[in-house]
Specification:
Helix content: 40-55%
Strand content: under 5%
GO molecular function, one term: DNA binding
Radius of gyration: 24 Å
Subcellular location: Nucleus
Strand order of the largest sheet: 1-2-3
Keywords: DNA-binding, Membrane, Nucleus, Transcription, Transcription regulation, Transmembrane, Transmembrane helix
Largest sheet: 3 strands, antiparallel
Main location: nucleus
InterPro entries: AtrR-like (IPR050987), XnlR_reg_dom (IPR007219)
Length: about 550
């Protein structure tokens, strides 16, 4: 989320199109949630919920036009070129007629078993342990032995089709001979069967099916669908008691000592934590209130989490992200962006920012060196710990995403200082505010420097998940350039933008296996990046007396 720099100046008072302190929606800057792009007391827009592409409001476009003296595109379209108004994917009826083909007919059993074996051999199965080694084969058995169209049969089928779609996100090919998956057919079948899940008896099977399909949508960048589906998953988990800690005794049992019921309880608890991590991430991306209220849940971490938090841990990390980081994000939302937080005085806002920053720093320092994010762009990535013995680069997706998530969290915490009334109404910056704004910018620079050093290793299956992070950092630096185009930081920030925007604009369709709608998203993303870079260059050039 963009933030103002400490060198910022207010747009000219005389301009008839200067945005007022009140936004078109009648909200003051002090009530702007986390999901909005906010800069110098002006609501510029947001990052599109449906596609993750930045959208500048009309006021935002006009403000940028003032700063760059370039209004060539301000009135040419009803929305800026990077606002994608297409649906993320076609509905099933647009590419297949269910009356002509039974799209819910299961794939041959040996093929499903091969996809399952491939999943279990990959680190993806630890990052997203939604498919249990004991429980899921029983689901497969039921699906292939049950006759007719009973609710139980529909649930089992939905679980298998959701798994096949979900497993397509797996970037690790343990079985090179695995045939290509007809992804659209699996998606269509899952979509047709999902209504049956909402009327089914609450069970681990229902939770797994909905959660796998939600994560598939998240991997494709469809945050809106994830948000809705996650709400249903969480309600089912509450019904099944998974928001409560199953107890230290059960949590301490080795896998081979677990009964079927205890295994199911621990599995549902893993599902709960996956939902928790995803819920807090979506809140930070959209500004919407979280689905899970921390005070209504027992947030005792699983014992394996503490084992893998040890600095000497060398295994594969279980669960996406990091649970402590997710709780910090939850805390940050409540203290800085909840309706109650938006009424806080400046001193209280800055106090909360300092305390959250300290929590975040303590967490960062607790990480092993190879997973620890660097604090500034001046610090190079920890390449010494990310290379193999032969000098080749060892790219770990989990570490990559964790570092991006940290920098985005850091920026989101410190960008709350933009709401301080000293800045919004008087445009005065005290030491605490200046320091916070500088840290928000520094974190965005560090994120983009890190991203540019490793983006060649970016797997297609995580592109739509990861691209949000550099985009948000790009917008942060872009707004800093527009506010202070003559500053020394503007010139260096422009170079950082160029490195990363070149990556965005050079992505080719052959780099990714994308649908037509997703290719449209990619094209819009390229347009938005190129346009932001053009505006930033123009602003810097004009500040130097250029034409």
């Amino acid at each position: 989320m963009p933030h103002a720099s400490s060198q910022s100046t207010r747009p000219p008072q005389a301009s008839p199109i200067e945005p007022s302190i009140e936004s078109p929606q009648g909200r003051s800057p002090a009530s702007s949630p986390a999901g909005l792009i906010y800069c110098a007391g002006y609501r510029l827009g947001d990052i599109g919920l449906f596609h993750g592409i930045p959208f500048l409001s009309r006021d935002g476009q006009q403000w940028i036009g003032i700063r760059s003296d370039d209004e060539s595109g301000a009135e040419s379209e009803t929305s800026p070129p990077w606002h994608n108004q297409r649906q993320p994917w076609p509905t099933f009826s647009s590419f297949i007629n269910p009356s002509h083909l039974d799209v819910t007919k299961l794939l041959p059993l040996p093929l499903v078993e091969r996809f399952l074996a491939n999943y279990f051999k990959s680190p993806f199965s630890e990052a997203f342990p939604i498919v249990d080694r004991v429980l899921f084969p029983k689901i497969i058995e039921r699906a292939y032995t049950q006759q007719g169209s009973s609710p139980e049969s529909a649930t089992s089928k939905a679980c298998i089709f959701a798994f096949l779609a979900f497993s397509s996100l797996n970037g690790y090919d343990a079985d090179p001979g695995l045939p290509p998956l007809h992804e659209q057919q699996c998606i269509t079948a899952a979509q047709l069967l999902i209504p049956d899940l909402f009327t089914a008896r609450p069970s681990a099977e229902v939770v797994d099916a909905l959660l796998m399909f939600a994560i598939y949508n998240f991997g494709c960048g469809n945050v809106h669908a994830v948000d809705l589906m996650l709400s249903a998953v969480v309600r089912f988990l509450f019904m099944l008691g998974a928001h409560l800690y199953p107890g230290e005794e059960m949590d301490s049992l080795p896998p081979e000592a677990l009964s079927l019921e205890k295994r199911k309880a621990l599995h549902l608890r893993d599902d709960f934590w996956i939902c928790y991590v995803l819920d807090k991430e979506i809140t930070f991306r959209t500004g919407r209130p979280p689905i899970i209220n921390d005070s209504s849940c027992d947030l005792t971490f699983p014992k394996y989490y503490w084992k893998q938090s040890d600095r000497n841990f060398k295994g594969v990390y279980r669960l996406p992200g990091d649970l402590r980081l997710s709780t910090i994000k939850s805390n940050a939302y409540e203290r800085l962006y909840s309706p109650q937080a938006l009424r806080k005085a400046d001193a209280e806002i800055l106090k909360d920012i300092r305390e959250l920053d300290e929590m975040l720093e303590n967490w960062r320092l607790s990480l092993p060196l190879e997973r620890r994010p660097t604090l500034s762009a001046a610090q190079p990535p920890n390449k010494s710990t990310e290379t193999n013995g032969d000098g080749s680069f060892d790219f770990d997706i989990s570490t990559f995403l964790l570092k991006l998530e940290y920098h985005h969290c850091m920026t989101t915490i410190h960008q709350a200082s933009s709401r301080c009334t000293n800045w919004v109404y008087n445009h005065r910056i005290d030491d605490g505010l200046s320091s916070s704004l500088d840290l928000a910018l520094a974190s965005s620079r560090a994120m983009l420097t890190y991203f540019s050093s490793v983006h060649d290793h970016l797997f297609p299956n995580i592109f739509w998940v990861a691209v949000f992070y550099p985009l948000s950092a790009i917008l942060t630096l872009f707004c800093n350039i527009m506010l202070s185009p003559a500053s020394a930081s503007a010139a260096s920030d422009l170079k950082i933008l160029e490195w990363n925007i070149d990556f965005m604009s050079e992505r080719n369709s052959k780099d990714f296996l994308l649908s037509v709608a997703q290719l449209t998203h990619l094209d819009r993303l390229k347009q938005s990046c190129v346009e932001l870079l053009r505006l930033a260059r123009t602003s810097v050039l004009q500040s130097q007396g250029g034409a």
